[in-house]
Amino acid sequence: MFKTTIYVLLSIIIPPISLIAQTTSKIAPKREFRGVWVATVANIDWPSKPGLSVDQQKQELIGLLEQHKSNGINAIMLQVRPAADAFYAKSREPWSQWLMGKQGLAPAAGYDPLAFAIKEAHFRGMELHAWFNPYRATMSANTVVSEEHMTRKHPEFFFVYGGKKQFDPGIPEVREYIVQVILDVVKGYDIDGIHFDDYFYPYKIAGQTIKDAATFNQHPNGFTNINDWRRNNVDLLIKQLDDSIHHYKKYVKFGISPFGIWKNISEDSLGSATNGLSNYSELYADSRKWVKEGWVDYINPQIYFSFSRRAAPFGTLVDWWSNNTFGRHLYIGQGPYLMHNGTTKKEAAWAKPGQIPDQIRYIRNNNRVQGSVFFSSKSFSTVARALGDSLKNDLYRYPALPPQMPWLDDIAPNEPQHLTAEAHRDGVHLQWEKPLKAEDGETASGYVIYRFTEGEKISVLDARNILKISFEEYTSFIDTSVEKGKRYNYLVTALDRLKNESEPSGPVGVETK
Fold it and tell me: Is 217 exposed, middle or buried (0-12, 13-18, 19+ CB in 10 A)?
């Protein structure tokens, strides 16, 4: 996810009322993907160490989610399969070693980390994307695997590179197995997305050779060039996954976070004006093709570069990707883990506290980019604490809904029924009923509550009026943040699984006690 050896506060000014309509999108976009990667491999982000009790794991995860919600994040990319293992109960693979300290060792009965994470994320109005490493099987030559691990069951499925075992993508049975592993989660859990990072064929190591010549000879698929064959092997998996995921659940998003450079312009006139590692040539990942063919719902390139990085400037790559989205969503992977205080020999640009805030502003000025994902969660408690403050107090000050995906679903739900508001001593009690079924059969999978003070223009277009977003089916809410003796108006809208929003129910007015 991050490879340091390879990767060669403005305050908000509230405008006059007459200007709000045209400036709101720049101040506070109502639709924006705001994600963060939560890495479980080697306990990078969560859990903090293996072997914690269930209560300790839960409390750590709740604390993490609360921190990110406070910072305005609306999507969690949770790593659920770091190395042919599992952070979830409904798996054909063994429990991860980074959960309880030994691969295959189950946590306490009745505890399913993924199910718990989904419930807690949805309660906070955050999507949960299950992040898989499709091909990695071990992290080192010393990895102790359980009897149930696939390297024991089918050693012929793997090659060793750099001391690590990796699934051989050229074997048809391997691709089918990985699809089934992922479909276990699609079918068994209430996830919002399936997510891959940049690990397909391995990053090159001097003196190492990928030992897949025998597979190439056995399953050439009409190819005579092994490099083209390798790229096609990855393509086959991506295409099959796109079809399979949406066959079972149309609303589950499928996205990939490749290395930031597809091809350099020196390799291909369609490439970016950069000079760095090439996804296409060195990792056998034709990431642009996946978008062009519509095999992914979003592409999330890891542009872990500063604006001034000569070989691969941030702005150059954002612009290139925005010109190659082919109608799919583009979220930019940003690297707060690179931030430092200037006392190291690391790139000086990352000592500037405005580097990532300026990157977010740059992204927002391009209407073909729909948001960001940050690597990684832990950074916001260490080197990127100041960035968290910038998000919370400025850039992500107001809530946002994830962007819509009309190619998956463009039918809005009906509005909630019979909205009422009553003032009590503990706040304003709102209640409503689920909407009638829309023409696609959906009712509501979540709600947005808007609040307006007396005399304020009533509109659902302004994110500053969003009081609460939840991706749960509850039909009541208590607003405890009201002031006594004031009059408020409320609206409630319904959301379907792809976050299409209904017309509002209301407004209803109430005077507080």
Answer: exposed
